[in-house]
Design a protein that fits this description.
By secondary structure, the protein is an alpha/beta fold.
Length: about 450
């Protein structure tokens, strides 16, 4: 079969898939009160279908040309030198942390027993790699109404074992990067920005607007369907440091020392001419392992979807901002009953959700309000773990008094655990949906 014939067949297959999308996935029903309003959802069209089918026809099932394309375009978009795709945001956090444990970092390497400053009011995969490796998370409290790390507790959290700060931008609201970065620089600490809920958020850092995830040493993203853009499953780790990039990809790719992409050999031009460890001289570099790693690569089909989604990301971000502001304006006069969210100083958030904390003096409870919203079809979520240290996964550590440390009290974290929830602002929400959400909340709280 000629190249032209193959291309014609490919076009026919892609066209048929796009027609299927038009018939099956395109819905025109207008929202009516009582319809379900999810907190998040995937937004896609025939561009994603076309890219997915195109990649599948090659049957290159691991990372390939679409993965390379995405890594380059994403790095260009966010403003970093290096982006490494992985199979989830959780894996991205794991790789970001594990890269900092590499012996290749010398004295700055994180050892078992070293401490990492973080928060308990968040998603567990920011903290899990620290504990799984055998390092010690040191928890500090957060502040309302930004729901981000309380930077006044950083000094109390510091010890001679502190090696890093690893913390997330809460639901798209950037934490105080000026203060945290200055603290890390002063004490020669690594800074990992968990950017999984904040893709597209910006922060005014030293007079320049920069995307969150690019100011610390490493940033991470998630492309799970509820997030700012999706690959279904998928994540990314990004950095400006070429050594860290190499370490991230070593841990991602079985721990190997070789950096050849899948399907390519001898990119170092010295595959059989080097000495490693106590191996025989000239042992195949493709099978030399410098770390105890994993296989956390993404498939090219996922990356193809990501390439199409990335083109839509600016519009997604603007829609999230618009929807968040509508909710904020519509609930502005209820601040005697609700603590409403506020953007952090010097920030331009790309919101993941709209956080609400029910005031104790309101005569209402979070659980009661959440129950009413769910009854009216409005999906809600807690601020993830609330206080992670209260969960069953910490039972043994709480009993032994070992494995983690609390720098000060976690009173605001506990308040969030009791009184806070959030609703969605994702791009699929329409103005009638948001007006209905506002109406239901006002009816319950009046």
């Amino acid at each position: 079969m000629s190249t032209d014939q193959k291309e014609l067949l490919r076009q026919r297959v892609v066209k048929a898939a796009c027609e299927y999308y038009q018939h099956v996935h395109v819905h025109h029903k207008e929202f009516e009160p009582g319809d379900r309003i999810p907190y998040a959802g995937r937004i896609f069209d025939d561009a994603e279908i076309s890219a997915l089918i195109d990649s599948s026809l090659e049957f290159w099932l691991t990372s390939g040309r679409y993965a390379e394309k995405f890594e380059k375009e994403f790095a260009d978009y966010i403003g970093v030198r290096h982006c490494s795709l992985t199979n989830s945001g959780s894996s991205a956090n794991l790789l970001a942390f594990m890269a900092l444990t590499s012996p290749k970092l010398g004295e700055r390497r994180i050892h078992r027993g070293d401490e990492v400053i973080t928060v308990a009011a968040g998603f567990p995969t920011t903290v899990a790699p620290i504990i799984q490796y055998g390092a010690v998370p040191v928890f500090v409290d957060v502040c309302l109404p930004t729901y981000n790390i309380d930077v006044t507790q950083l000094d109390a959290a510091l010890s001679d074992k502190t090696k890093a700060v690893m913390v997330a931008h809460t639901l798209g609201n950037p934490f105080d990067l000026t203060a945290v970065k200055a603290f890390c620089d002063k004490h020669n600490l690594w800074l990992v920005e968990d950017n999984c809920d904040a893709l597209g958020s910006r922060y005014l850092f030293k007079g320049q607007w920069r995307y969150t995830g690019t100011i610390g040493h490493i940033g991470t993203s998630s492309f799970y369907p509820p997030h700012h853009m999706t690959m279904g499953e998928g994540g990314a780790v990004y950095t400006n440091d070429p050594l860290i990039k190499r370490l991230i990809e070593s841990f991602r790719d079985w721990g190997r020392d070789c950096w050849c992409p899948s399907g390519r050999d001898n990119t170092c031009s010295n595959r059989f001419g080097q000495q490693f460890g106590e191996l025989p001289f000239g042992y195949d570099h493709k099978y030399v392992y410098s770390h105890f790693g994993y296989n956390l690569k993404v498939t090219d089909m996922q990356a193809a979807i990501g390439c199409a989604q990335l083109q839509k990301l600016p519009g997604f971000v603007e829609a999230r901002k618009r929807n968040w502001q509508m909710l904020r304006d519509g609930l502005a006069d209820l601040q005697d009953q609700l603590i409403l969210p506020e953007a952090a100083e010097n920030s331009d958030p790309s919101w993941f959700g709209f956080l609400l904390t029910v005031r104790r003096e309101s005569g209402f409870t979070r659980d009661r309000l959440v129950a009413q919203l769910e009854l009216h079809g409005i999906q809600t979520r807690m601020l993830f773990a609330g206080n992670l240290t209260k969960h069953p996964c910490f039972d043994e550590m709480r009993k032994s008094g070992e494995g983690y440390r609390v720098a000060d009290d976690l009173s605001v974290t506990d308040q969030i655990m009791r009184d806070t929830f959030w609703v969605g602002v994702y791009p699929g929400m329409t103005e009638p949906m948001i007006e209905h959400m506002i109406s239901v909340m006002r009816q319950q709280l009046r």
